[in-house]
Design brief:
Structural class: alpha+beta
Radius of gyration: 34 Å
Shape: elongated
Largest sheet: 6 strands, mixed, barrel
Strand order of the largest sheet: 3-4-9-6-8-7
Number of helices: 25
Oligomer: single chain
Mean pLDDT: 84
Low-confidence stretches: 408-415
Distance between the termini: 43 Å
Helix content: 40-55%
Length: 809
């Protein structure tokens, strides 16, 4: 222990006497370890840390495969839910929930719109979380026509009600109906979404005849002894018996595939984020390896400069173990100090990541520098110290070092094996950095392809906001439609507004309905299920506001909904599939049994994602032919100036019509489009940063090795010039040496890049994992940087005077 402490003191003094080396090494390690720690904190918060529910690994989600009806993971209808709730034995219990946005109003405060979860009583049992204050709903309160009660979230309790515990037992208005607050959920409870602020009983009716409308998301807890596999087997068996729930033969043959999905709640929650985060974790791992290679090279070069010192130690009796231990101690001290600095950078980096990360990444609020993350940082710091310290340590002891005393360290050359070790490290850096560069290039190309996709509308200069008129004030579809008509007339009269309209759900917003549609011109057989299409309700002026092109016919007018004409507008892809070269104008269709005449054809729109195919869509007016109508809608305003300048004017118009109606989701349509690409842009940004760091470290590695090699070959290069070699030839020789290392690293990196591309396939759009352009540009960029890194040492080599080189010898 005394010898170890002595080594630590000596290492500290030596590092303090070489501040340039120490600072460069610490910065290299701090950046790489900090980046690795920051990304790991995200991986830990999202993928590793247990969910905040008792025995969370037993919680699963259940969906039905209706891929024949274009809905691969479909929720349950009322009849389907009770079919499972009453007959499933591998779940204890089986539960359901749904989500909505509703206005709430309380005495003395402005109404606000909040996210609400409608949950069966059994769903609270599945999650197993008790309220912070109050109680859970009773079975009576979850029954049809039961008492209206609610639970509120901890944050809403603090912000809206000032943390007053007396709020439990009082009533507030939710979506126009008075509900009693029976409890406050604990801090951090965020099921099913982080934004959820209110929970109410579902009050599902066991006698409901509904089997066609699927709106109940199923969550369950595995029964004792049950596994995901056994639950899946039972689930698929129950799906095949859906006739018992009332489903007709066309549903069984043309909608359901007979398959289902039972996933752990964690898997469902994380979804496709897992691959993105693991790729990013592997990326910063590459950065760490590049940094370790760089530091190892620095230590090897430093060891060469301390040859006499090491030789004296050996001559005075220092054994192999003592010499190696000292170098390892010094390496670990550097790594631990770099790790400590990396924690600070990671803390700042984590804050930045959370601010940049899309809201669609789950559990963002759980990300942070936790004890587990600190333990990980300690582990990788020790690992890095050993990784870059072992080779210099082994090279530091050699019985041939005794020649250093005899030669005084002058004129000696470095053995081919020592120079080879440094070259191997440089080649490794180049190969790893090229992998990062190509991976980043693939994501950039993918993002460019995604940005170039025509969404089917023009998002520029369009302001959007959402309204949800409560049924207490707007009890019928006619009253609700009249509200939107009056509002849109006022908005169109505002200065700077070119067009105004509304739709039930904006494209690329992740919402919408898919309905079965009868087409009389193409009748389905008695055992066939009618085709399904995406269906949206829109007001007059919507197509003009977002500039969806009108191809044929006309768009909606006020009379379409005021007189319930039974009108519909279809997208181009529906016309192309069914009417080909004929006009569909005047032909009949019936979305969800609501007969309508086609009055127009508009362009196709990407409803679900720019990376998905355009959705065949039917647009219906606010009121259809059989009594159906609208409730909540998103209003879109096309402006000829700044959208921000209209926000106050829009709010004033809404308040003038209904002072108690809150406005939510005020944003531009361009923001909606950008949000649909957030995950791709987030991954692209992080990969680009990692690639830049890798490129920089790789070029520094080439420069360091070539520069040091030139200094070792000073005598040789002087003799070459004395024998007639000109400066240009000397420079070319040095450039060739650096170029050889770069070419070898690039060749190895190309093979590794192909493997990396295969891993990233699911993250790419419109670009092959083996994209020749990206790989070629990556190689050219790296070779160019390598040449630039070699230019300065080559220039210095060409300027060596023979007389000075020989005099130094």
């Amino acid at each position: 222990m005394s010898e170890l402490l002595s080594d630590i003191r000596i290492a500290f003094r030596v590092l303090a006497k070489t501040p340039a080396f120490t600072i460069v090494t610490l910065l290299t390690l701090a950046v790489s370890i900090g980046a690795t720690t920051a990304i790991f904190s995200v991986v830990d918060g999202v993928l590793i840390r247990p969910l905040p529910y008792p025995n969370a690994d037993r919680i699963v989600t259940v969906t039905v495969d209706a891929s024949k009806g274009n809905v691969p993971e479909m929720p349950f209808s009322d009849r389907g839910y009770w079919h499972f709730a009453n007959k499933a034995r591998t779940f204890a219990p089986f539960a359901g929930y749904d989500e909505a946005e509703v206005p709430i109003a309380s005495e003395g405060a402005e109404p606000v719109q909040v996210s609400l979860a409608v949950m069966t009583r059994s769903a609270f049992d599945v999650l197993g979380v008790s309220p912070y204050r109050g109680r859970l709903p009773s079975a009576e309160e979850d029954a049809p026509n039961g008492p209206l009660v609610m639970l509120i979230g901890y944050d809403l309790w603090k912000t809206r009600f000032g943390g007053d515990t007396a709020i439990v037992g009082k009533s507030i208005t939710v979506n126009g109906r008075s509900r009693q607050i029976i409890g406050i959920m604990p801090h951090g409870y965020d099921f099913p979404e982080p934004e959820t602020a209110v929970w109410v009983p579902y009050q599902l009716d066991p006698a409901s005849p509904n089997y066609g409308g699927h709106h109940i998301n199923a969550i369950a807890r595995l029964a004792p002894g049950a596994t995901v596999a056994s639950a899946l087997a039972e689930t698929e068996g129950l799906v095949k018996r859906f006739e018992e729930a009332g489903y007709t033969p066309p549903w069984m043959t043309n909608v359901f595939s007979g398959r289902a999905a039972v996933k752990s709640y964690r898997e469902q929650l994380v979804g496709d984020v897992r691959q993105t985060l693991l790729v990013l974790m592997g990326t910063v791992g590459f950065v760490l390896l590049i940094a370790c290679s760089n530091v190892a090279n620095l230590l090897l070069l430093r060891a060469e400069g301390r040859t006499r010192e090491t030789a004296v130690r050996i001559a005075l009796g220092a054994g192999r173990r003592r010499v190696i231990r000292y170098v390892i101690v010094e390496s670990l001290m550097l790594a631990l100090a770099g790790g400590a600095a990396g924690v600070l950078l990671a803390y700042l980096g984590t804050k930045l990541l959370i601010s940049l990360a899309p809201s669609s990444i789950p559990r963002l609020h759980e990300i942070g520098i936790t004890p587990g993350v600190l333990l990980f940082t300690l582990g990788i710091s020790v690992f890095a110290g050993l990784l870059f310290g072992v080779l210099p340590a082994l090279r530091s002891f050699s019985y041939r070092m005794v020649t250093a005393l005899r030669d005084g360290g002058r004129g000696s050359t470095v053995g081919r094996e020592r120079h080879g070790a440094r070259q191997v490290l440089v080649v490794t850096q180049i190969a790893l950095a090229l992998v990062l560069l190509v991976g980043s290039g693939l994501m950039v190309r993918s993002f460019q392809k995604l940005r170039a996709v025509n969404p089917g509308f023009s998002p520029d200069a369009v302001l959007t906001f959402r309204l949800a008129p409560p049924p207490s004030k707007y009890p019928t579809p006619e009253v609700t439609a009249q509200f939107y008509t009056n509002l849109l007339e006022r908005l169109r009269a505002l200065p700077g507004v070119q067009a105004a309209g509304a739709i039930t759900s904006l494209p690329l917003s992740g919402a919408g309905s898919i309905l079965a549609t009868q087409i009389p011109d193409f009748p389905t057989g008695p055992n066939d299920f009618p085709p399904t299409f995406s269906v949206r309700r829109v007001t007059p002026g919507y197509f003009e506001a977002v500039r969806i092109p009108l191809i044929e016919g006309r768009t909606f007018e006020n009379r379409d909904h005021q007189q319930r004409l039974g009108s519909a507008i279809i997208s181009q892809s529906i016309k192309a599939k069914y009417w080909h070269e004929r006009t569909p104008i005047g032909r009949r269709i019936a979305p969800s049994s609501a007969p309508a005449a086609i009055i127009g054809v508009v362009g196709d729109v990407h409803q679900t994602g720019l990376d998905k195919e355009t959705d065949p869509t039917i647009y219906m007016p606010m009121l259809d032919s059989v009594g159906g109508g609208v409730r909540s809608m998103t209003v879109a305003l096309r402006t000829n100036g700044s959208t921000e300048s209209l926000i106050n004017a829009v709010s004033a118009q809404v308040r003038d019509i209904d002072p108690g109606l809150p406005i939510t989701h005020i944003e531009t349509l361009g923001t909606v489009v950008d949000r649909s690409m957030n995950r791709t842009s987030f991954a692209t940004l992080l990969l680009a940063i990692a690639a830049f760091i890798g490129l920089f470290l790789g070029s520094v590695g080439i420069y360091g090795v070539i520069s040091y090699t030139v200094s070792l070959r000073t005598v040789e290069l002087g003799i070459r010039q004395a024998l007639g070699a000109n400066a240009g030839r000397i420079r070319m020789m040095v450039l060739r040496q650096g170029g050889t290392l770069a070419l070898l690293g690039v060749a190895i990196g190309i093979g590794a890049s192909l493997a990396m591309g295969r891993v990233m396939t699911n993250m790419l759009y419109g670009v092959s994992a083996f994209d020749p352009l990206t790989v070629g540009v990556g190689c050219v960029v790296f070779l160019s940087v390598a040449v630039l890194a070699c230019l300065l040492p080559a220039r210095r080599a060409g300027n060596i005077a023979p007389s000075e080189a020989l005099r130094a010898e």
